[in-house]
Amino acid sequence: MTTAEKDRKWKRASRPSLFVVGTSAGGLHALSILLAGLPASFDLPVVIVQHRASDSHDLAAVLQDSTPLVVEEIEDKVILEGGHIYLAPPDYHVLVAPGELALTTDEPVRFSRPSIDLLFESAADAYGAEVVGIVLTGANHDGCKGSERITQLGGRIIVQDPTTAESHTMPAAVARSIASAMVLPLDRIAGAVAELAARGTIKGTRA
What we know:
Blueprint: H1 3-12, E1 18-23, H2 27-36, E2 46-50, H3 59-64, E3 70-73, E4 78-79, E5 84-87, E6 93-97, E7 100-104, H4 116-127, E8 131-135, H5 144-152, E9 156-160, H6 169-177, E10 182-184, H7 186-199
Parallel strand pairs: 1-2, 1-8, 2-5, 3-5, 8-9, 9-10
Antiparallel strand pairs: 4-7, 6-7
Helix pairs in contact: 2-7, 4-5
């Protein structure tokens, strides 16, 4: 896909209804930077899968210090609300349905539970072109398949520039596989997300 074609894809898409985020190694720092950059007026839900140990239970409290938005760990059948940041609990997959989130303990995917791919795929199936997926630092390829599903159904993908990632494997893999992905340095992703939430487009799609 040429740069001009990529620009047209981003500029003609509608305002999103949901942002989904996937990250692994180095994710705490990356998520803190992302959430700190979102304005208090941000009015869409954000669902995050961070690969973490099964005994990790304090991520929501840590990230709450980075943002005025409400950060909460997902409970089964929770209703999606704008301005809320939803975190996958350790050792549960998160599935998106229209207006709500569900938890499952199905087998790990790519050795991971929660799975970024399952989050992204279910979000695409539920919201189609109104989904934006964001892939941050990580050390495996979880997120590639889900990102492909999002773009197949008309959604968009933002990828952290691998050169700014603590672990470049995940964002590099997605950037290679998704020709239309917008690749941005970590410190520019929040601004892009806020602009998409407000207008549905971004001025200029080249990083």
